[in-house]
Amino acid sequence: MKTATKYIAVIVVLVSFMSCQKNSRPNYQYMPNMYESVGYEAYQESDAFGNGVEAQLPAEGTIPRGDFMPFEIDNTTEGFMYAKANLTNPLDASEIDYDRGGELYGIYCGICHGNKGDGKGKLVQREKILGVPSYDDVGRAITTGSIYHTLYYGKNTMGSYANQLNEEERWQVVAYVEKLKADLEK
Question: Quick check: is 47 in a domain?
């Protein structure tokens, strides 16, 4: 009988310990701010960053790191006309790589403008986009500067490729477009 009492006492003690454990409730946190950080609203005024504005703008005149260089010509009609008349390719003939320019053109431009620059890309053939003229269209009279300006800012339904292509790649595409234009005018 003594052993039965011992077993019952052990079972009662174990059951009492097991009943006190709650897996649904977390243990005590000594430093809760390390586990649950305070979230700041990005575009709301706050004293968290000193001047009351949390989404900080970079200082005026700064240039972000990386390959980005600002384009000094504005995205206006006057800027386009200025670029068309004055902008030239800074790459010399030894730096122009038509294979690389053609590859980039095929990725970004050929879907609308066609692989030959005739304005008959896949999207035009499927009538998903209309009004893409050929590079040899006399009314357009494209130049080195107008091509670069259009790549940088976009024009009409064509969007900007400034984020997809760095400056050197844009100039490679410009050289390739000029080559396509010369091939079409033959």
Answer: no
